[in-house]
Amino acid sequence: MKAVICRKFGKASQLTLTDITTPVPSDKQLLIKVMATTVTAGDCEIRSLRLGFVINLFLRIFAKCTTLILGMELSGEVIAVGKKVTLFKVGDKIMAVSGFKANAQFICLPENGPIVLKPTNMNEQEAAAILVGGVNALHFLRKAEIKPNEKVLIYGASGSIGTAAIQLAKYYGGNVTGVCSTSNLSLVKSLGADNVIDYSQEDYAKKGEDYDVIFDTLGKSKFKTNMNLLSKNGRYLLAAPKYSEMIKGYWLTRRTTKKVITSFADHTVEKLSFLKKLVEEKKFIAVIDRTYSLENIVDAHIYVEKGHKKGNVVITISH
After folding, report:
1. Is the CB of residue 235 less than 8 Å from the CB of residue 152?
2. What is the dihedral of CA 254, 132, 99, 94, to 10 degrees?
3. Which residues does residue 115 pair with via DSSP β-bridges, in sequence order?
4. What is the dihedral of CA 251, 253, 258, 259, to 10 degrees?
5. How far apart, in whole angstroms, are the C-alpha atoms of residue 28 and residue 112?
6. Are β-strands 312-316 and 29-39 bridged in parallel, bridged antiparallel, or unpaired?
7. Which CATH superfamily is domain 2-131+267-316 in?
8. Contact between 234 and 261 (Cβ < 8 Å)
9. Tens-digit pLDDT profile for residues 66-113
10. DSSP assignment of 279-311
11. Could you tell me where in the chain the CATH 3.90.180.10 domains are found?
12. pTM for the complete prediction?
């Protein structure tokens, strides 16, 4: 099979499309023919080692003993099952969070992992594009426990987490303000945002508004500014926190009535099933910016790394 291999950390040009042995499922695994996957900001950060020191050190050691295939999410078809598999069957169309190894024609995954049947009203590309961003947004917004008509500010509203967060915050009854660039204003509004702020033209911190929930999906806004904008019992959600913000958040959460939430999302069957339900009820859609072939994945990484993608960048895999 063909897979994109990251043999050395660094630039996108380090990625190579290579023929490797197709995996064989163990007793409780599924062999999945991957139809679509994505390139996320997380993939680019891992590839280029733009991570914290401890994680970078771990990956450098890890890379010496194995060949790394990136790709965190996928949709595809089950083409073989282990002899003890009971949850899925050959022919099932599925979507899954894989962690790694999705940038390939085939992948083996445990049947009890974060895998669900694909929504009936989505194609493969759309199904692959709702998982990582959707689960991250769902994780944080559930922890925020949004009440009807609470004011929710989403910073980075046009990215993969941001576009999911707008839709989910509206589902929970929030009054949503999205912060994004000029070119993304119409997209953010179309997803249900009640208000949209163009950060290149206006500073949301100077509007005199306070918010019950502030969700920084990118880790690029100012911690102190956002804390000052929170209402008395406000919640500050950080999807990409710096270590210093995690420490400050831990301290402030225990000393004030405001909460700082920096926990990492767990990808579960329940969360995937919830997103699937919303999709089939037409309350949640995929946002796809561009689609590339597996052969052109280097170009996809270069584009995502620029930091201006709208929603998701999808990789379509031919067989």
Report:
1. no
2. 140
3. 96
4. 130
5. 8
6. antiparallel
7. Medium-chain alcohol dehydrogenases, catalytic domain (3.90.180.10)
8. no
9. 578 999 999 999 999 999 999 999 999 999 999 889 999 999 999 999
10. HHTTS----EEEEEEGGGHHHHHHHHHTT--SB
11. 2-131+267-316
12. 0.93
Alpha helices (H) along 16-115? 41-48, 53-63
> Average pLDDT of the chain?
93
The sign of the torsion formed by the CA atoms of 65, 69, 74, 75 equals negative
- State how far Cα 215 lies from the chain centre: 14
Q: Categorise residue 223: left if φ over 0, alpha if ψ from -120 to 50, beta otherwise.
A: alpha
pLDDT in tens, 149-165: 999 999 999 999 999 99
Residues 191, 279: Cα–Cα separation, whole Å: 13
For 112, the token pair is: 């009890």
Gyration radius of the chain over CA positions: 20
- Check if the beta carbon of residue 54 is closer than 8 Å to that of residue 106: no
Beta strands in the chain (DSSP E): 2-6, 15-19, 29-39, 73-81, 93-97, 106-110, 115-117, 151-155, 175-180, 195-198, 211-216, 230-238, 259-261, 288-293, 312-316
**Are the C-beta atoms of residues 40 and 304 closer than 8 Å to each other?**
yes
The string of pLDDT tens digits covering residues 204-235 is: 999 889 999 999 999 889 999 999 999 999 99
Q: How far apart are CA 246 and CA 252, in angstroms?
A: 10
**Tokens of residue 97, six digits:** 């969070």
Tokens of residue 304, six digits: 């995502």
Question: How many CB atoms are closer than 10 A to CB 171?
Answer: 16
Domain 132-261: give its CATH code.
3.40.50.720
Question: Would strands 195-198 and 175-180 be described as parallel, antiparallel, or unpaired?
Answer: parallel
Residue range(s) of every CATH 3.40.50.720 domain in the chain: 132-261
Phi first, then psi, for residue 8 (nearest 5°) are -150, 135
In whole angstroms, give the CA distance from residue 241 to residue 189. 26
Q: Is the dihedral of CA 297, 298, 304, 309 positive or negative?
A: negative
3-state secondary structure of 203: coil
